[in-house]
Design brief:
Elements: H1 4-12, H2 19-25, E1 42-53, E2 56-64, E3 77-78, E4 81-83, H3 91-103, E5 111-115, E6 119-121, E7 126-134, E8 148-155, H4 156-159, E9 165-171, E10 177-186, E11 189-191, H5 193-211
Parallel strand pairs: 1-7
Antiparallel strand pairs: 1-2, 1-4, 2-3, 2-8, 5-7, 6-7, 9-10, 10-11
Helix pairs in contact: 2-5
């Protein structure tokens, strides 16, 4: 298994991040303004988890279960993660704990590589800290059915392909449809919104490594 890319990611995450410019590239036009998090924003951590499979590094995505009517993101694609609990030492621990709870990957097995730029999500009032981590061997995923409907993954090289970048109209309510929303087509799943914005910063970073 090629460990070189992992060490390059670790090193890149210690320097300047692609940041908001990369995030905005995959945001809808209505979102393309600076929206700082208010003082009452809830803190959350999500995990961009890399794992080896068939000789390549893959990244995990989850489709949120739709069992909770109050969940503003139900049914959407996301990274494993959730809100910070009082017992969490920091948002890295939050991301690891939530990953274990949602997809069954033990927090102790996840090696932290670094963090991307945080992102405020107005619709749910969450300030999200993306954490990048990896496990050394392919996990046996165990999904928490109340939170995760499905798990999909894609190799890092394919994530960098322009072929998976698309646009479509997305209905967010009976009264409102967003036109020409940018999204990533991940194994036929639509990854848009905050997850696409976070993913694009990660992809931008990976492309910088490849060029460098």
């Amino acid at each position: 298994m090629n460990q070189d890319i992992i060490e390059k990611i670790r090193k890149k995450l210690t320097g300047p991040m692609p940041g908001q410019d990369a995030q905005i590239e995959m945001s809808h036009v209505l979102r393309r303004t600076d929206q700082p998090a208010p003082a009452n924003a809830q803190l959350a951590g999500v995990m961009i988890l890399l794992y080896p499979e068939d000789g390549v590094w893959k990244v995990v995505f989850t489709q949120r279960a739709s069992k909770y009517a109050h969940d503003k993101h139900k049914g959407q694609m996301s990274f494993p993660g959730g809100k910070m609990e009082p017992s969490d030492r920091d948002l890295v621990e939050t991301a690891k704990r939530e990953t274990q709870e949602e997809i069954g990957v033990a927090a102790a097995l996840i090696h932290t590589l670094g963090q991307l730029t945080d992102l405020y999500i107005p619709v749910s009032n969450f300030k999200v800290q993306p954490v990048v981590g990896y496990v050394e061997v392919q996990p046996e995923f165990v999904l928490e059915e109340n939170e995760v409907a499905e798990l999909v993954s894609l190799d890092v090289a394919s994530l960098c392909s322009n072929e998976i970048r698309k646009t479509k109209d997305i209905s967010i309510s009976k009264q409102m449809t967003l036109k020409r929303v940018p999204y990533f087509d991940i194994q036929g799943k639509v990854v848009w919104g905050a997850t696409a914005m976070i993913l694009n910063e990660f992809v931008t970073l990976i492309k910088q490594i490849s060029v460098g």
